[in-house]
């Protein structure tokens, strides 16, 4: 399904930076869509006591209030993740886990910075030697190999489907899949071996990944392990856009207007680097929302 009428602003990430961007973009009468799940935000599980004008308050309460504010100004919300972003003329085409695609005049990246770890033996030791956190970056190294993917949400399921274009076998391990119906159908027809209720307990190998030991007591021989816990990260989402990252390849570089080096792409919050604080994320979200809305209004298609 394809929605041809473009949004002025699409925001990726439902944390404080993204919410503040949605509030300001919507108040500027920009057609605004926010994509993401609030419980993917690290703030959702936190308690805050260092934010101006607030004593101790739960992150969940902050995010729920911000969502209500943005909706009151006209922003739309969808609790699903983005699988890919690609240029489409002067616009950007975003493919969603539901199977739908949407167009945007501008995109604000506010997905946070952390890469969730599996926290099992061998993960740290074999990073870069078969352990990867980026399917889009490293899939090509595993042509005709057997690989494992760990995760239950869209990044894991979408990554596993993508890997079938390279690997001879793809095994997806998770407690319980939590993905949209459209992506679920893709997964079923992709040839991915899905092992629900089975998780990776350790990654084996000396100089390279050789196998994974599983919670059901079995061992699967693999050459690569892709850890995809949550939504798509900065590396995957920016791979096709040419967005400039810093030297660590963790954070997006922006100017004082939160613009990236790609016209129409903005970024805010932890994805732009430390300090990883809500106050900084909110300030950058404010700037990004205002600037993106202004750019979208002036864009001639």
Structure overview:
The longest helix has 21 residues, at 278-298. The protein is of the alpha/beta class and 301 residues long. It has helices at residues 16-27, 59-72, 135-138, 154-163, 181-190, 234-238, 278-298; strands at residues 2-12, 32-35, 47-48, 57-58, 76-78, 82-88, 91-96, 101-109, 131-132, 146-150, 169-174, 193-196, 200-204, 211-214, 219-221, 224-227, 265-267. It folds into two domains: 2-114 and 233-298, FAD/NAD(P)-binding domain (3-Layer(bba) Sandwich); 131-227, FAD/NAD(P)-binding domain (3-Layer(bba) Sandwich), CATH 3.50.50.60. The protein has seven helices and 17 strands. The strands form four sheets. Strands 1, 2, 5, 6, 7, 8 and 17 form a seven-stranded mixed beta sheet that branches. The two termini are 22 Å apart.
List the helices and strands and how they pair.
Blueprint: E1 2-12, H1 16-27, E2 32-35, E3 47-48, E4 57-58, H2 59-72, E5 76-78, E6 82-88, E7 91-96, E8 101-109, E9 131-132, H3 135-138, E10 146-150, H4 154-163, E11 169-174, H5 181-190, E12 193-196, E13 200-204, E14 211-214, E15 219-221, E16 224-227, H6 234-238, E17 265-267, H7 278-298
Helix pairs in contact: 1-2, 1-7, 4-5
Domain FAD/NAD(P)-binding: 7-285
Keywords: Flavoprotein, Oxidoreductase
GO molecular function, one term: thioredoxin-disulfide reductase (NADPH) activity
């Amino acid at each position: 399904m394809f929605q041809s009428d473009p949004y002025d602003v699409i925001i990726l990430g439902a944390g404080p930076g993204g919410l503040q961007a949605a509030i300001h973009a919507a108040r500027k009468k920009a057609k605004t869509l926010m994509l993401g799940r609030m419980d993917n935000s690290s703030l959702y599980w936190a308690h805050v006591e260092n934010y101006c004008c607030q004593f101790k308050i739960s992150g969940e309460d902050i995010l729920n209030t911000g969502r209500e504010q943005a909706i009151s100004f006209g922003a739309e919300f969808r609790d699903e993740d983005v699988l890919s972003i690609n240029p489409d003329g002067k616009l950007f085409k975003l493919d969603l886990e539901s199977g739908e695609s949407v167009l945007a005049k501008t995109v604000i990246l506010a997905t946070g910075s952390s890469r969730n770890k599996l926290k099992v033996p061998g993960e740290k030791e074999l990073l870069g030697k078969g352990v990867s956190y980026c399917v889009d970056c490293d899939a090509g190294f595993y042509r005709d190999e057997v690989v494992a993917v760990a995760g239950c949400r869209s990044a894991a399921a979408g990554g596993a489907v993508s890997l079938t274009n390279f690997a001879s076998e793809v095994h997806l391990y998770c407690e319980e899949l939590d993905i949209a119906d459209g992506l679920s159908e893709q997964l079923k027809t992709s040839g991915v071996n899905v092992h629900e209720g089975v998780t990776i307990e350790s990654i084996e190998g000396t100089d390279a990944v050789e196998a994974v030991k599983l919670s059901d007591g079995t061992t699967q021989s693999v050459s690569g392990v892709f850890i995809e816990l949550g939504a798509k990260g900065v590396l995957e989402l920016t791979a096709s856009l040419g967005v400039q990252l810093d030297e660590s390849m963790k954070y997006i570089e922006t100017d004082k207007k939160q613009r990236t080096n790609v016209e129409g792409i903005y970024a805010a919050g932890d994805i732009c680097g430390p300090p990883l604080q809500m106050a900084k994320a909110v300030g950058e979200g404010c700037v990004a929302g205002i600037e993106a809305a202004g750019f979208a209004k002036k864009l001639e298609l």
